[in-house]
Amino acid sequence: MAERAARAGGAVARQSFRGDLAVETKADKNDLVTESDRDAQRQAVSTLRAEFPNDAVVGEEDAVPLGTPGEAVEILSTVPESGDTWVVDPIDGTANFARGLRTWATAISAVVDGEIVAAATYLPATEDVYAAGDGPGTRNGNALAVSDRTDPETFAAAPVGRFERDAGAELGAIAEAVVERLGDFRRFGSMQTTLAFVASGELDAAFATYTPDPWDTLAGIHLVRRAGGTVTDLAGEQWTRESEGIVASNGEAHEVVCEVARAAESR
Predict the structure, then answer these.
(1) Cβ distance 198 to 132 under 8 Å?
(2) Which residues pair with 199 in a beta bridge?
């Protein structure tokens, strides 16, 4: 169901990709939202509610009107501790989407009593879909597996998330640590896409130095886990929804990746 909803929402967003967009801002001038974000979320939620009308929904955008005029689905900002919940990111990487870059995704995860049980990340511009339930994950129907590299100096690693205007020193320290301890540095502008790349072995590691919103992370975290990877907090402890930061890797030299992610702490 997560894959079906991700495909449905992503297909709506794809219709306006590289078209005329009315781009708005939220928290700041680089925190973007478009009507396509709202349309894609509306379609994804509608797809989910058709089969699971009583489940809670957590999403990035506001309440979603569905069906009868005036009817709206309540969109939560946090995942409830109990019950069945769907977490929706209609366009992860809106800044890329608005610029016509192809690296953006629609991501859906299913959560039961606070635990992720299924997820799908769909990249409409490339027609790639990464999905996993309680068994091994897949990319376009083929088995997902993290990379088998063991030498951290060969790792391609990606810091994820937005760095605010006054965070240049932090990003600089992280970049320096990646170059000194790992192999190479990537920045894709879509957290869910980046985590999916770790799950498929296209990247060896990714990390966020803060705690992102659930719609930005839960699907990707589940994909990495089901692909045999490791997901922890910055200290290397098992990741939970209360954790500080996220470090995802193929599980080889994971502590080195954690040290790189913590590099800014000494600055």
Answers:
(1) no
(2) none
